Predict the 3D structure of the following.
Amino acid sequence: FTNRSQLEALVSEPEAERQPPAVIAAIARQLEQQGGNAATLLRILINRYPQNFWLLIRMSYTDANTGILEGIGCLRAAIALRPGYARLFNALGGKQRYIHRDDEAIASFKRAIELDPSYWEPHGNLGDVLARRGQLDEAVACFRQAAELEPAAGYIQWRLGQLLRKQGKHPEAIELYRQFAAWWPEDPEVHHNRGLLLFEFGELAEAATSLRRAIELFPADNPDRQAAQSQLAQCAAFDSVAAKLPAFLAGTDQPAI
């Protein structure tokens, strides 16, 4: 495409409503590569074809050029055309959550779930908003549901582990982090967080193993590597105290602790 009229012609009636999303995306992408403003083109086309669902969807994902409020408006217009499409409500809730319109985001995610209870993403997104509001029990329930629907969703499992840890449900959280270490054996953050949780729960030997693995995997200049080294030293110190404690309590030997 060399000019705007050629681009507009590609999305002309009666073809406008039948253009697949890939074509609309390709139009905007090529215009951007040519140094043009895709948002301006999309506005022109939407003004001409306000019932074009795919134009509205494409416009809703140009936030860098249009601003998130315009993206929200496009999603609302798309929802008016397809009110039974759960993914639209999930996308709308994501934008509302981003600008901290939490009540609106909650309503959008709940509507997405009503429309398609098997769609796992809005369960997790709803959990994120509820966790931000301090509603941890409800958030955990959302993440559990999302994890059941999509066990391979690493972020969902991760957030569930974080919230269980925050609630003090250490045994369950530890089991999740053990799963994480099996799934992502080369991720230093997994081993680091697992080591911290085990340390908090008094499992010093296993905590030390996880922290050593994290130290091996972290880049040398990563601040978390130094933090893991410090925490590993704390494990050794606590283990030393624990080893001396029985004799101290028995009164047969009373070394300075």
Observations:
- The chain has 15 helices and no strands.
- The chain has a mean pLDDT of 81.
- Residues 223-250 form the longest helix (28 residues).
- The CA atoms of residues 60 and 73 lie 8 Å apart.
